[in-house]
Amino acid sequence: MNHIKIIKYAIVISAILSLTSCADTLIGDEGELDEAVFLNYRTKTDLELPFENEWFIGAGGKTILQNHHFIPHRHQRYAMDIIQLVDGKSFKGDGTKNEDHYCFGKRLNAPGNGKIVALENNIEDNVPGVLNTDQQLGNYIIIDHLNGEFSYLVHFKQQSIRVSVGDTVVKGQEVGKAGNSGNSTGPHLHYHLQTTADIHDGMGLPTQFNSYYANDVFIERGTPVQNQVVRKD
């Protein structure tokens, strides 16, 4: 990807975030960042990006300037909101239908090996711009990586999840399709890693993925941050 395209993506990000993101944050308790040790946490699980082709990091990183999740809720402090862009836009037409959005219905994968410990698959997808604040996670899966790390993949398309509680999954296995369910203003993937399977508890963990490209630069191990275009190969 050339520098002109990268600059274009950076210019449009503020508009995109107003259209396609988690509305504020999900669920959790407020508090100061008194667990600063987690800023330098090294992910134990061998993780890869949980999607195919190029996606755009709408929110992600370790500062409030990069990541609107960072301050309000400690369990998703390092969460990412991820979409797809074509010519700097996340949707075609006027974006009023989920099907207008380029990531809607796209394949999502297990980012690492583990066991499915919780999921929801029956929540209707929102009309873009209309939130479901009663079922904030929407359709989701939680993967226990069996080492004190738990992956949350949130806002799946209704009835698209292909796994069941108790299933063992392997890195790269398809688990469902991107959607717009829950506390979401438009189709996207919310991903974060935390220390428990309880959305109301636990600490968010910085996430390092292995072997991917960010803005066409190969990253052996790193953390995607806002405004990057990322892909596995």
Overview of the structural elements:
- The protein has 233 residues and is mainly beta.
- It has one domain: Glucose Permease (Domain IIA).
- It has 1 helix and 13 strands.
- It has one helix at 3-19; strands at 55-59, 80-83, 107-109, 114-120, 139-144, 150-156, 168-169, 174-177, 189-194, 204-205, 209-214, 217-222, 229-231.
- The strands form 2 sheets. Strands 1, 2, 4, 5, 6, 7, 9, 10, 11, 12 and 13 form an 11-stranded antiparallel β-sheet that branches.
- It is globular.
- Mean pLDDT is 85; it is low at 1-19 and 24-34.
A few lines on this structure:
This protein has 233 residues and is mostly beta strands. It is built from 1 helix and 13 strands.
Q: What name is given to the CATH topology?
A: Glucose Permease (Domain IIA)
Give the strand content. Answer: 25-35%
C-alpha end-to-end distance: 13 Å
Major sheet description: 11 strands, antiparallel
Order of SSEs: HEEEEEEEEEEEEE
Secondary-structure map:
Blueprint: H1 3-19, E1 55-59, E2 80-83, E3 107-109, E4 114-120, E5 139-144, E6 150-156, E7 168-169, E8 174-177, E9 189-194, E10 204-205, E11 209-214, E12 217-222, E13 229-231
Antiparallel strand pairs: 1-2, 1-13, 2-9, 3-8, 4-5, 4-7, 5-6, 6-9, 9-10, 11-12, 11-13
Name some characteristics of this structure.
1 helix; 11-stranded antiparallel sheet; mainly beta; two-stranded antiparallel ribbon; about 230 residues
